[in-house]
Amino acid sequence: MSKVRRLAAVCGLSLIVSLLLAGVAVAADQRAVLFLETRPSAKPEQGYVLAARLVATDGRPVNEATVRFYDLVEFFGAREMLIGSATTDGQGIATLTYLPAQLGPRAIVAKFAGRAGVAATEGRASLAATVAAQPYTVEPAPLSAFSSKVPYAVGAIVLAVWALIGFALIGTARGVMTGARKEGKWQTA
Hints:
It is a single chain. By secondary structure, this protein is α+β, with helices and mostly antiparallel strands. Helices cover 29% and strands 32% of the residues. The chain is built from 4 helices and 7 strands. The chain has a 4-stranded antiparallel sheet with strand order 4-3-6-7, with no helix packed on it. The longest helix is centred in the last third of the chain and has 34 residues, at 150-183. The protein is elongated and about 110 Å long.
């Protein structure tokens, strides 16, 4: 056994060294590029279409790959809010419709987490949202006027209960002191 193989066996690297000595190269994941495009939907009420095209560096589309779409939002710092995910088709294209919650500029990110033979990648695009989801409004409950007064009523009841407890304690203390005076057990100076 050669010195290189003996050293590899000692270090626990015998399989890798054996493969390298045998001339077998370990293939790295192929790089991929993710192109992200945003466009208005055919129906304005549906918002926008996010289209991600995933291609390998040799130009072949990567199909059956899951792409996740995120909206970059400012909420206690920059965060990625998941919009949804889609799977690439035979041309390597994954599409998703998106209706933003607010108008204005949006930063969209599409991410591919990678898989066997293809490395992870991401793409970015900007979106000037001129269409947004309608805010959800709730009609006030029929007893909403009454419910705004409930905390004050509960506070008054709690205060009254504590007042009764206080009067009971004071009355008990006075009764004990009066009884002690009558029996002569209470000395005054």
